[in-house]
Amino acid sequence: MLLRLDNRDTRPLHEQVAGAIRRAIAEGECRPGDRLPSARDLSQALDVNVNTVLRGLRSLRDDGLLEFRRGRGVTVAKGADERSGLLDQVHALVTEAARLGYSRTDLIEMIRGLP
Amino acid sequence: MLLRLDNRDTRPLHEQVAGAIRRAIAEGECRPGDRLPSARDLSQALDVNVNTVLRGLRSLRDDGLLEFRRGRGVTVAKGADERSGLLDQVHALVTEAARLGYSRTDLIEMIRGLP
DNA sequence: ACCTATTTGTCCGTATGTATG
DNA sequence: CCATACATACGGACAAATAGG
Q: Is residue A38 scored above 90 in pLDDT?
């Protein structure tokens, strides 16, 4: 799993980290049960603080994509491969919407308002 | 631009007005630079109070979709058509979600659950 | 079973930048 | 212009799990 961050990306680092790993899972580079590199290794590779990496990882855990075990590392959760692609789309949509001035509530309204 | 409100809709009237006009813009019925019917005309056509219409229009102005000019009316802002592309993205998302067995409610929960 | 060194995520505080009043 | 609040990113100390002797 080879990750890199884009300097031109204006999003917070922890979001970029989360997005990169989410896509790696969506594209099958990491499969359920696989172990991720340790947060410290990732932080070295990406040249950001460990806690910044962990913040990104935590958000993926909250989405049900990852599982944490102190002393054992971070593993890809069961079913993460199916959900990650969809969550990736959701994230992209929410981000694009925010850029254009639309709130999440507006998006929910759009979804509800579809024919 | 033909607008109508749904009696069964439980949302506040000003939200319904805003939603209806937003959709009209997204579907190309109103293009950037076009003038909207006056708030008074809209209030007559929709059978709601003028201030209710204005409240909805104001929220669209805050989103950057409309521009107000005293004495000259309300016009569709530049770039408002580009934002309508969001609806296409929403469509694609809902379709892909359905293919994977996720309902709109599931998507809404995903959006709500984002960090 | 025991110890201990290492690896791993968790938790605390702090500096900096960005809004907000 | 100043003050206040909030988010972001960082650093260091900590505790759980592991691996080797």
A: yes
**Predicted local confidence at residue A44, as pLDDT:** 93
Amino acid at A35: R
Distances (CA, A) of A84 to A16, A34, A94, B87: 15, 15, 15, 22
State the Cα torsion A53-A55-A57-A58 to the nearest 10°: 160
- Residues in A 10-29 whose C-beta is less than 7 A from nucleic strand D are 12-15
Nearest alpha carbon to residue B41 among B63, B21, B67: B21
Q: Do B86 and A63 touch (CB under 8 A)?
A: no
Interchain pair B107, A104: CB under 8 A: no
Q: Which two tokens stand for residue B58?
A: 């104001």
What length is written for chain B? 115
Q: Are B25 and B65 in contact (CB under 8 A)?
A: yes
Summarised one tens digit per residue, pLDDT across range B81-115 is 666 457 557 666 877 888 889 988 999 988 887 76
Chain B residues with CB under 8 Å of A104 CB are 111-112, 114
Q: Quickly list H helices, B27-115.
A: 39-46, 50-62, 80-83, 85-99, 104-112
Distance between CA atoms of residues B72 and A31, nearest Å = 59
Q: What are phi and psi of A66, to 5 degrees?
A: -125, 160
